[in-house]
């Protein structure tokens, strides 16, 4: 049975990566743009994965059998 554990554990990993991004982006004139872009990309990838994972766990439309298979 699937659980919420992968969603929470990956969220923690993404938050750690975001913290590393905030701390280790080199100084420069575009530091804020680079840092924001990387953090936004991480958040968007995580949200896309989480929505897909949760949709597979709890589908809106249940699968049905056709008459040919019965």
TrEMBL record:
One of its GO terms (biological process) is vacuolar acidification. One of its GO terms (cellular component) is endomembrane system. The keyword Signal does not apply. Its main location: membrane. It is found in: Endomembrane system. Keywords: Hydrogen ion transport, Ion transport, Membrane, Transmembrane, Transmembrane helix, Transport. GO terms for molecular function: proton-transporting ATPase activity, rotational mechanism. The chain crosses the membrane at residues 6-25, 32-55. Pfam families: ATP_synt_H (PF05493). It is a multi-pass membrane protein. InterPro entries: ATPase_V0-cplx_e1/e2_su (IPR008389). Belongs to the V-ATPase e1/e2 subunit family. PANTHER family: V-TYPE PROTON ATPASE SUBUNIT (PTHR12263:SF0), VACUOLAR ATP SYNTHASE SUBUNIT H (PTHR12263). This is ATPase, V0 complex, subunit E1/e2. It comes from Schizophyllum amplum.
